Amino acid sequence: MIEFLVLAVVAAGTGWLVRRKHRERQAAGSPDGIPCMARYPAGEGRWRSGRVYAGGGGGSRWEPRRGGAVELSGARSTGVRVPTVREGISINPGSRIVACALADGGEIEIAVMPLDVRELLEVVPE
Predict the structure, then answer these.
(1) Is the pLDDT at 56 greater than 90, yes or no?
(2) Positive or negative CA dihedral for 30, 31, 32, 33?
């Protein structure tokens, strides 16, 4: 009987902590930028997670979690496609891949969720 009482107290404490954390995240709001995964240069290397930031003082750019940012100022999107089966293992298979040509002649592929494609195409127009 004591075990059930201890289990109930632990469950109530866990529920309180989870609810508190949820309220803190709601109060903080959503972070800036578009969450994505990118492969730079396109077709090579591995997919790295990061965010695409639009405009502002530094221009549009993709910032990985680790490493240097890639400037997207002057970049143009060249196509939107679904990931292949092999790419779907590394990234979310429901995402869309936007291929972009950079101003310096390089290429980058950016994978975003379908609801974020329109926002990304505003940052990197066709």
Answers:
(1) no
(2) negative
